[in-house]
Amino acid sequence: MRTWSVDLIHAHDARSHALAMIALIGRAELPLVVTRRVPFPPRSVRLKYGSRVTRFIAISNAVRDAMVEGGIDASRITVVHSGIAHRTHAVEPRDWRSELEWPADSVIAGIVGAMTAEKGVDALAAIAAALDSMVKSRTRVILLGGSSKGTQEIQGLTVHSAGFVSDIDPAIAGLDVLWHPSRSEGLGTSIIDAMSLGVPPIAFSVGGIPEVIQHEQSGLLVPAGDARAFAAAAARLVEDSGLRKRLGDQAKERAKTFDAREMTKGTEEVYQSVLSG
């Protein structure tokens, strides 16, 4: 900060927010912009979210609403949706069926991200238990993230833990459906990634996800935590290839709304607004 004589500080996460607050002690003239990504009310509002922060950027309306609920004035918050980078080349889907020797008519669903309880991986057993035997026999699930554990059976459902995958685009493009049983989500960039590749998502209607997925148009939304409803939505997409195709095509168009260039433009506008006083 001192070396480059900066005009503005932008903290992009909770840790950098705390570090910036310390670094800016005695530097009241420097504006601080803070991005918040989680859809629950902040703690320590007086200390970390007080007047020292010049402007907040919320990555979704759901995040903004949670901040207002926590006591932050809405006039101090600007919503700038997260975006993904524009792809300049076609993505060759990874052939999971050949690689894992799965039946040619199997429908491959994927869960992408950190394999934690918050991201809903613990809901997988309940979803599997709610699937009927015919749907279960046709479905294969791949976990893209966490540790590699190979193939296992969960409530009669075949699940392959691929672990961390460095070349993620082909891995996602090789899916037929994205399952996103997250309990909490600021926006859901893994959903946007899948949609941009024409993979239709199923997700719990939590946080900022309804701002991304248009129900029955670019994916399917189900009530938060309702494993039976999630399983019913999964069964629809297993049984109806035409619906998968229609939702996938529209998902690809919808994902264009969440472009990194628009995110950059929105962030720049916040900078200009702050620096102009």
Task: Give the integer mean of the pLDDT values.
Answer: 95
Count up the helices: 12
Order of helices and strands: EHEHEHEHEHHEEHEHEHEHHH
Task: Report the span from N to C terminus.
Answer: 20 Å
> Looking at the structure, what is the overall shape?
elongated
Structural domain count = 2
- Give the radius of gyration: 21 Å
List the topology elements.
Layout: E1 9-11, H1 14-23, E2 32-36, H2 45-48, E3 55-58, H3 61-69, E4 77-79, H4 96-100, E5 107-112, H5 124-130, H6 133-138, E6 139-154, E7 157-163, H7 168-173, E8 177-180, H8 189-196, E9 201-204, H9 209-212, E10 220-222, H10 227-239, H11 241-255, H12 260-275
Parallel strand pairs: 1-2, 2-3, 3-4, 5-6, 5-8, 8-9, 9-10
Antiparallel strand pairs: 6-7
